[in-house]
Amino acid sequence: MEQPIAVDHLTRSYGKQRGVIDLTFSVQEGEIFAFLGPNGAGKTTTIRQLMGFLRPTRGSARIFGLDCWMESARVKTKVGFLPADIHLYEQMSGAEFLNFAARFRNGEHARRRKMLVERLDLDLKQKIKHLSKGNRQKLGIIQALMHDAPLLILDEPSTGLDPLKQMDFLGLLREEQSRGKAIFLSSHLLSEVERIAQRIAIIRDGRLITVEEVARLKAKRERRMEMTLREPVAPERFSVLDGVRMISADPGGQHVTLAVRGELAQLLRTLSELPVEDLTFAPADLESIFLHYYSDVNAPSLQEGVAK
To answer: What is the value of pTM for the model shown?
Structure first.
């Protein structure tokens, strides 16, 4: 079976304005793939090319082997799509809008639509103009998922949802993943991405900075460890360990703060030999990783040598 998404040296330029430059990545069946970057980084331009709304300047984007520009009509039958700026017809009710959206697809999938409406707790009788921002977002999510497409492309899908509905929505995505669906997710909610994505791509100034498994990225980043010892310990006990960097130690050597990178086995063996009274360990989170890649202007893009 062809890959759900295969992007090869995808480039879109707007004259002197930046678009996206030489993007290469893929999304596998049964994978949740997060696409991260602040506003203006190139996320929406990439998504529009995947959906066949923009023609690439160079390179290609394919969905299940179909060229996203040349075969865009067939591509759209394979995708459940939620744009960040979904247009809803204000005078329609929620039910009328979903009926309208269903006309563009093969079949209605009435049972699935009913399940989604119940899970997200949405009243379809109300006019869209009377819906809150969160309920409008629920309606957009339902129209993206109700056709049971094998690939979901979701741009900021949790916008406006309250925390409980965000959890329900993430549960839905996990269920879709368990059924073998591929999910391409663009989100500013890094805590959400961290809970659900297997891999992430970070884009900056139109170029990919990294494409990596979330677990591997977190393992590469420094984690902070603070400890209190019952008696002084020479700082050299820690500084000689691989992947361990001393941040601070009080003059008596009983309060120590370390930065730890990579495997913990050697450090844990050392700690087992020391009079540790208290230990606090803060693992790297996705926000710190993202800020590291995005704020470091000297960080190379993938095209400049960052390994996938």
So the answer is: 0.82
